[in-house]
Specification:
Blueprint lengths: L5 H12 L10 H8 L36 H6 L5 H9 L1 H4 L13 H13 L2
Length: 124
């Protein structure tokens, strides 16, 4: 077996420490554009409409917006709206909370979900 020189060894070590897939960057401005499809039912304020107001949604418990009439399924869900729960819900609302009443089939694009969550994190 041949000996590796220091430069080759350093390259191998550097490459082995590099992630295979880069982490998905979140873009809140792009998320605001994705949110445009949510505005028919949701506001970025505490005001409830067809859907609950989403002010401060990240970190909030599910079914906790004051004055909004949640479905029994959402009341039982007992979720904390962290990034993981929001991503799952935005991917497939009916799978995440079976029986919820939100008429949205989900957002298949992972980048759009990440951007939307970045935007939701900003509305406090």
């Amino acid at each position: 077996m041949k000996r590796l020189n220091k430069a080759a060894l350093a390259t191998i070590v550097a490459l082995s420490c590099t992630p295979i897939a880069p982490a998905m960057a979140q873009d809140a401005d792009a998320g605001k554009q994705v949110f445009a499809q949510c505005t028919a039912c949701h506001a970025v304020t505490a005001t409830n409409g067809v859907g609950p107001g989403l002010l401060g949604i990240v970190g909030r418990k599910s079914a906790s917006s004051p004055g909004f009439r949640y479905s029994p399924a959402m009341k039982r869900a007992n979720l904390s709206w962290d990034e993981k729960a929001l991503d799952a819900y935005l991917t497939d609302p009916q799978k995440t909370v079976p029986g919820n009443l939100m008429p949205f089939s989900g957002l298949a694009d992972a980048k759009q979900r990440a951007d939307l969550i970045a935007y939701l994190k900003m509305i406090k």
